[in-house]
C-alpha cells in the first residue's frame, strides 16, 4: 500500500472492514479482538498509529520491529487464537510518521480468541455467544470457501500415504521440530483444518481440500471431474502445441510435474544474489506462477487451469472468484486467500510464503530474468491470469568452452550498456577493484561492490563468478554471515 492510498483509506473512517488503533510501545488486546472479528467476517485493514477520528499519530520508529515480531508471534500462539491465523503487518511512512498497516484476510474457518468468538458489526467488535449465530458463521464460511465442503464418506484409506510422508519431509526440511512429525495422518488433517464439522448437515468429515491435497487420483477425479491443469508448449505450432501434458493428480505432486514441464521448455539464467550465491530465476518465477495457479483456483468451476509456454511469454490461468476486475497493481492489489486451508499446507511445506509474497517476488525477479523493462501482468476476472514475458534467445546466458574449460559467458548488451567489463578492456581493473575491496572488508556485499567499482550489479555478478571459477576467491561460512577470502 502506498502512502497516498493509506491517506485515502483513512479519510473513509472506520467501517466493517477498517479499524483505527492508537499504538505506543505495545499492541493492546483490543487489536487482537479486531483481528478475530475480521477473520470471522470479511477480513479488513487495521491501522496502528491512527486515532478514532483518523488523525495520524504514528508509532515509535524504534518500536516497529518489536511490535511487528510480537504481533506475528501472537497470531501463532495456540493459547490465544484457535486455530492459529495469518495476517500481514507492514510499516508505511506518512509525513515523517510511521503507521503500521495490518491486513487481515477473509478466512475459511471460524476463529476464537481466548475461547471467545468475535464478529464484526458496523465498526464494532462483538462477542458471539449464541450457538445459532455461531452455526450461521460456519455456514457463511462454507458458502465462501468451497474447499471447506465436507465429504462424510471420504475416508483415510482414500488418501495416499506416500503424499503424507512427502509433506512431512518437506515440513521437516523447514523445521526439524515441526509438529506434523509427531502426528498421525488424522491429527495432521485436523490441525490443518482438513477434517471439520459441517453445520449445514451436522456431519463430520474430510473436506474437498483434503482430497485435493492428499487424495488418490481416481478419488480426486470422482469428486472434482473437471480438475486438472493443461500444460502446453506453443513455440512453433501456435495453433495447437509442440508439447502437452495433462496434470491430473494431487496438488502437491502437481507442483513438481509442472515444474518439470517448465524446465523442459524454458532456459535459465546465471544470477548471483547479494550474498554471491547462485539462484535459479526461472525456478523462482515458475514456482510462484504454478503455485498461485493451483492454490487459488475455484474448484467448483468447470473451466480448466492452464500453464502455457510460448516463444515470447508464458502464462498461467485458473478459474477464479474475482475480487477486482482488470489488471492488478501495487496500488490496487489486496491479497485475498481463495483457499486458505490449501494455502496453509503449502506454506508449511515451503511451496509458498505469506499472502501477497508471490506478487512482490515476480515483480522482483521478472526484470532480472526477462530484461530490465519487463514486468509481469496480473489480471483478475472469471479466469485469473499471470503473464510473464520471456527473454529473447540472444539475451540468454550460455555456457561456452574456452581453452578446454567451461566458463560463464554473459551478454552485456549493446554498447556494453550493463558495464559488465566483458570484452571491453575493463576486466583487469574491475577484478583488481573487487579484490582490493575484499581485502579491506571480507564481509562486503554485492551492492557495496557496485558502488565502489562503478559497475552495475550484473557486472559485479559476472566478475565475482569469474573470480570464483578461477579459484581467486572463495566463500567461508553461511550465506548471510559468511565472509570472502582471497586465495593467494
SSE topology sketch:
Elements: H1 3-11, E1 18-21, H2 29-40, E2 44-48, H3 64-75, E3 81-82, E4 88-94, E5 97-104, E6 112-113, E7 116-121, E8 124-128, H4 131-144, E9 150-151, H5 161-174, H6 185-191, E10 195-198, E11 203-207, H7 208-214, H8 217-223, E12 229-234, E13 243-247, H9 251-265, H10 281-295, E14 305-310, E15 313-319, E16 326-327, H11 340-348, H12 357-370, E17 377-380, E18 383-389, E19 398-402, E20 405-409, H13 427-440, H14 446-453, H15 457-469, E21 473-476, E22 483-486
Helix pairs in contact: 9-10, 10-12, 13-15, 14-15
Characterise the protein shown here:
The chain is α+β, with helices and mostly antiparallel strands. The protein has four domains: 3-132, 2-Layer Sandwich (Methyltransferase, Cobalt-precorrin-4 Transmethylase, Domain 2); 145-223, no CATH class; 229-394, Heat Shock Protein 90 (2-Layer Sandwich); 419-486, Winged helix-like DNA-binding domain superfamily/Winged helix DNA-binding domain (Arc Repressor Mutant, subunit A), CATH 1.10.10.10. 35% of the residues lie in helices and 22% in strands. The protein has helices at residues 3-11, 29-40, 64-75, 131-144, 161-174, 185-191, 208-214, 217-223, 251-265, 281-295, 340-348, 357-370, 427-440, 446-453, 457-469; strands at 18-21, 44-48, 81-82, 88-94, 97-104, 112-113, 116-121, 124-128, 150-151, 195-198, 203-207, 229-234, 243-247, 305-310, 313-319, 326-327, 377-380, 383-389, 398-402, 405-409, 473-476, 483-486. A hairpin with an 8-residue loop joins strand 12 and strand 13. Helix 13 packs across helix 15. The longest helix is centred in the middle third of the chain and has 15 residues, at 251-265. Residues 395-428 have low confidence and may be disordered.
Amino acid at each position: 500500500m502506498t502512502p497516498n492510498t493509506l491517506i485515502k483509506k483513512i479519510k473513509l473512517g472506520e467501517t466493517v472492514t477498517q479499524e483505527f488503533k492508537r499504538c505506543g510501545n505495545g499492541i493492546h488486546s483490543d487489536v487482537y479482538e479486531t483481528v478475530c472479528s475480521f477473520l470471522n467476517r470479511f477480513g479488513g485493514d487495521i491501522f496502528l498509529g491512527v486515532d478514532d477520528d483518523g488523525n495520524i499519530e504514528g508509532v515509535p520508529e524504534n518500536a516497529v520491529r518489536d511490535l511487528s515480531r510480537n504481533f506475528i508471534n501472537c497470531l501463532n500462539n495456540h493459547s490465544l487464537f484457535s486455530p492459529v491465523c495469518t495476517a500481514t503487518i507492514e510499516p508505511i511512512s506518512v509525513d515523517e510518521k510511521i503507521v503500521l498497516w495490518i491486513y487481515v484476510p477473509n478466512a475459511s474457518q471460524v476463529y476464537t480468541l481466548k475461547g471467545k468468538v468475535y464478529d464484526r458489526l458496523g465498526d464494532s467488535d462483538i462477542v458471539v455467544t449464541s450457538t445459532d449465530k455461531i452455526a450461521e458463521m460456519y455456514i457463511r464460511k462454507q458458502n465462501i470457501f468451497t474447499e471447506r465442503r465436507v465429504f462424510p464418506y471420504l475416508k483415510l484409506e482414500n488418501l495416499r500415504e506416500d503424499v503424507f510422508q512427502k509433506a512431512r519431509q518437506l515440513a521437516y526440511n523447514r523445521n526439524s521440530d515441526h509438529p506434523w512429525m509427531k502426528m498421525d495422518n488424522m491429527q495432521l488433517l485436523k490441525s490443518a483444518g482438513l477434517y471439520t464439522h459441517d453445520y449445514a448437515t451436522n456431519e463430520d468429515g474430510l473436506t474437498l481440500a483434503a482430497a485435493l491435497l492428499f487424495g488418490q487420483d481416481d478419488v480426486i477425479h470422482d469428486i472434482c471431474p473437471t480438475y486438472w491443469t493443461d500444460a502446453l508448449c506453443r513455440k512453433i505450432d501456435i495453433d495447437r502445441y509442440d508439447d502437452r501434458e495433462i496434470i491430473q493428480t494431487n496438488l502437491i505432486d502437481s507442483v513438481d510435474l509442472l515444474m518439470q514441464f517448465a524446465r523442459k521448455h524454458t532456459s535459465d539464467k546465471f544470477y548471483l544474489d547479494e550474498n554471491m550465491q547462485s539462484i535459479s530465476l526461472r525456478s523462482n518465477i515458475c514456482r510462484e506462477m504454478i503455485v498461485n495457479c493451483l492454490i487459488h483456483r475455484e474448484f467448483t468451476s468447470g473451466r480448466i487451469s492452464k500453464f502455457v509456454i510460448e516463444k515470447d511469454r508464458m502464462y498461467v490461468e485458473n478459474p477464479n472468484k474475482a475480487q477486482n476486475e482488470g489488471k492488478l497493481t501495487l496500488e490496487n492489489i489486496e491479497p485475498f486467500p481463495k483457499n486458505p486451508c490449501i494455502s496453509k499446507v503449502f506454506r508449511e511445506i515451503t511451496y509458498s510464503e505469506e499472502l501477497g509474497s508471490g506478487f512482490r517476488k515476480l515483480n522482483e525477479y521478472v526484470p532480472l530474468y526477462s530484461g530490465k523493462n519487463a514486468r509481469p501482468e496480473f489480471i483478475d476476472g472469471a479466469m485469473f491470469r499471470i503473464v510473464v514475458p520471456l527473454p529473447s534467445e540472444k539475451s540468454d546466458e550460455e555456457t561456452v568452452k574456452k581453452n578446454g574449460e567451461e566458463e560463464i559467458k554473459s551478454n552485456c548488451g549493446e554498447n556494453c550498456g550493463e558495464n559488465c567489463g566483458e570484452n571491453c578492456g575493463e576486466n583487469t581493473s574491475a577484478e583488481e577493484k573487487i579484490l582490493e575491496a575484499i581485502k579491506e572488508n571480507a564481509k562486503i556485499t554485492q551492492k557495496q561492490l557496485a558502488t565502489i567499482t562503478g559497475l552495475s550489479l550484473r557486472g559485479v555478478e559476472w566478475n565475482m563468478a569469474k573470480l570464483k571459477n578461477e579459484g581467486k576467491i572463495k566463500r567461508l561460512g553461511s550465506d548471510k554471515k559468511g565472509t570472502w577470502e582471497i586465495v593467494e
